[in-house]
Write a structure and sequence with these properties.
The protein is mainly α. It has one domain. The chain is built from 8 helices and 2 strands; from the N terminus they run αββααααααα. It has a two-stranded antiparallel sheet with strand order 1-2. Helix 1 runs antiparallel to helix 3 and helix 3 runs antiparallel to helix 7. It is globular and about 60 Å long. Pfam families: DUF4112. It comes from Nitrospira moscoviensis. Keywords: Membrane, Transmembrane, Transmembrane helix. InterPro entries: DUF4112 (IPR025187).
């Protein structure tokens, strides 16, 4: 039971740091490091996605059913793909807070358990768990890196907005 609660606290802490770490002064809104680290071209969104992927590992260790993990994966995918778009993506990440949603899904699944019984069991990851997580996480990470790299290669980033190139090519 103590190990299960420790995993739940870890999931809550990860979600809080990524999505709700600081309350914005004079408002009821909060912000985490997800939109801030996402400002770093190419690697920022991939790094945040890796941190968010740890929620999937915790979910499977706590035997969260695969349909719930798939819903978490959809939220993860949307946040990653939209979040990789400069400026608009960070606004989306600030508003959507996929890690907080995923942590809530995880905690609700653990609380409800199968047929109303709370499965307070921590289990090691099986090879099927690792394969499923790999298929869920790696394609999303590849899309995020490719998309971020595309924007960077086409000079569409915060750097290009803040420091426009003095040289332009005209055809």
């Amino acid at each position: 039971m103590a190990l299960v609660r420790s995993k739940e606290r870890s999931a809550e802490a990860i979600a809080r740091v990524l999505d709700n770490f600081v309350r914005l002064p004079g408002s009821r809104m909060s912000m985490g490091v997800d939109p801030l680290v996402g400002l770093l071209p190419v690697i920022g969104d991939a790094l945040v996605a890796l941190l968010g992927a740890s929620l999937f590992v915790i979910a499977r260790q706590l035997n969260v059913p695969w349909p719930v993990v798939a819903r978490m994966g959809w939220n993860y995918f949307k946040n990653g793909v939209f979040g990789a778009v400069p400026i608009i993506g960070d606004i989306y990440s600030f508003h959507f807070k996929s890690n907080a949603i995923n942590a809530a899904l995880l905690l609700r699944a653990v609380k409800e358990g199968a047929e109303g019984a709370c499965p307070l069991v921590h289990s090691p990851l099986t090879i099927l768990d690792m394969a499923g997580l790999f298929l869920l996480i790696v394609p999303t990470l590849l899309v995020i890196v490719f998309e971020s790299w595309w924007f960077w290669d086409h000079n569409i980033s915060y750097v290009s907005f803040l420091f426009p190139s003095p040289y332009t090519t005209r055809r």
